[in-house]
Amino acid sequence: MSGLVSYLSGKAAEDRVLSAYSAQGYRLVCRRWRGPGGEIDLVLSKGDEAIFVEVKSSRSMAEAAAHLSRRQIGRLLASAEAALGFFARGSLTPMRFDVALVDGAGRIDVIPNALMVG
């Protein structure tokens, strides 16, 4: 049962984050995209920029942030490289990697370009 609870909690956090991005004019390209390195929670676009979003949720923002491991970052980067195929300019597409933290109360803290790529 805890696996289902985790899945539903993660999906709810992603829904909240997607809604926040959509309200700012971002367009969903793909959700929970699986690449060679693993899953990317949200692939978005705005203008000609690709935005890859990793959503982390926990009881507090600090706990959510602590869930992002160095290994996971490496897998995210590998998958994002493959996901650039969604964009007309391919590997020349301007991009950034955001981390969206969601706490137990549903508050969202987005860290734009958290991985300092591009």
Characterise this structure.
- By secondary structure, this protein is an alpha+beta fold.
- It has a single domain, classed as Trna Endonuclease, Chain: A, domain 1, CATH 3.40.1350.10.
- It is 36% helix and 31% strand.
- The protein has helices at 2-23, 61-66, 70-83, and strands spanning 27-34, 39-46, 49-57, 95-102, 108-111.
- A hairpin with a 5-residue loop joins strand 4 (95-102) and strand 5 (108-111).
- The N and C termini lie far apart (40 Å).
- The mean pLDDT is 91.
- This is Putative endonuclease.
- Strand composition percent: 25-35%
Number of strands: 5
Tally of structural domains = 1
Distance linking N and C termini: 40 Å
InterPro entries: Restrct_endonuc-II-like (IPR011335), tRNA_endonuc-like_dom_sf (IPR011856), UPF0102_YraN-like (IPR003509)
Protein name: Putative endonuclease
GO molecular function: endonuclease activity; nucleic acid binding
Family: Belongs to the UPF0102 family.
